[in-house]
Amino acid sequence: MIESLHISNYALIDNIDIAFKPGLNIITGETGAGKSIMLGALSLLLGARADMKSVRNADRKTVIEAVFGVGEYPALKSFCEENDIEWDDNRCILRREIAPAGRSRAFVNDSPVPLAKLEAVSMQLIDIHSQHQNQLLTRPDFQLRVIDTLAGNEARLETYRTLFNTFRDALRKLKVAKARIKRTRDDEEFTRFQLEQLDELDLTSGEQEELEKERDVMANLTDIKSTLYTALQALREGRFNAISLVDDTLAACMSLDSVLSADDAITDRLESAMAELSDIADTLSSIDGDLSADPEELESIESRLQAIYSLQHKHKVDTVDELIAIRERLRERLDALDSSDITLASLEKEARRALALAKEAAAEISAHRKDAAQKFAAQLTELAAPLGMKNLRTQVNVSPADISATGTDKVEFAFAFNKNQPLLPVAGIASGGEISRLMLCLKAIIAEHMSLPTIIFDEIDTGVSGDVAARIGAMMQRMGSSIQVITITHLPQVAARGSSHFKVFKQDDDSATHTRVAELSPDDRIAELALMLSGNPDDPAARATAQGLLNQTNP
Questions:
Q1: pTM above 0.70, yes or no
Q2: In what order do the strands lie in the sheet with 104-108?
Q3: Which of 154, 170, 412, 457 has the fewest CB atoms inside 10 Å of its own CB, making it the most exposed?
Q4: 207: Cβ contacts below 8 Å, ≥ 6 apart
């Protein structure tokens, strides 16, 4: 429940603090006093868009903060722990701040959070029901959620959604495979032609580089052989070649034993140099002998390279390795086509099995929906009858629908408000007051099945009076015995039912008008009820009636 609410610098509110109580909390005040402003501030905690027009003083920060008593609330605790939000087993504090520059910040238990997470937390703590939300009753998705809530289908739906997503994924895989196989089959002849071209070329990794190297050598053979000739002349074959010069040097040094040190090993080193030079000369001579100007071989290399270049251009790649990869993909594609019947049969079997499991889970949900729908129709009729709808008939139809994320049902509420009226969807046949009372009854029913600690009604009793107003107040009072109820009302019959009563009023000073909120004492409550009854808080008859209402409703 909401323990306290702080609002500062918002619309007509400069600073207010309200300490709400358990049970039924009543908020009254003249039209325009600021009751709806308070709800607007609270809606910011539910993720509503911040509007700078609502900021009272553009130079100050706007703050809305609500403290909730949570106690044992495992779902919310789990959500906070999963999202790295600090958790207190006793209290949960929600805060929204709007900076002067317009930037909005959100906090849960002093942990900064994205607005979506603030909304996710607040939706588990409070439900604000304003008059425009009455139209939810006409929406099929809302009707379905109501029945699921009453049927206790939350865990079943979570399991079902997992199975449905599995089915949807299996169906997607099957569709993708069918489309891929169709494309491959349509292109089969061309694909086989491309593969034959690549297979015929029989490419090997690194082949292109070797061929280009050989081509370059053969294309420059004259220059290469000329250079080899120069090298061999200098080493061994010229008139003054290196080997003969070293040999002369060796002969000269062999006669200098008397002056050369044995440690220097001059002759050994020269003999080693002679051998190394001779070996180099032999290698160069062998290379020179292997090089021959064979036009046919050069033509063959050029032809092979042109075939490679042509396929590279065709497939828009630059290397042989990429062509090899394309060849393998084409082969895999044709192999997959050859085994496509087996592949599709396997995927179809997987999709059928996933569908069967999802339908099985959906059938269980449907059974609970039908049972809950029947009970809800009877309970709603019973609750609404004393609220001026004694001829109300209610029927909740749960009929088959295409499988979706919500199951295999569509839910439709049908009502008849008069004896001679057929059962029809609520849209177009119910007045605003009738829809309001139906929504009140609906909220009263689902409040018993939800762990939501607080619900706020914004003038849901508009358009009723007398005995019906008293019955609406009694219903809210009963709801207040299990959850905290906060209601804004103009009806004294409802206001008298509250365990706490707050009045919203305007107060002027020299420079501005301010919205104030005060919790009423017992005597102040009598005056307020008398004002609501007669327009005069001091009227003796109205005060006596007010006292009588309080005595009747809060014995």
A1: no
A2: 13-19, 2-10, 62-69, 91-98, 104-108, 111-113
A3: 154
A4: 308, 320
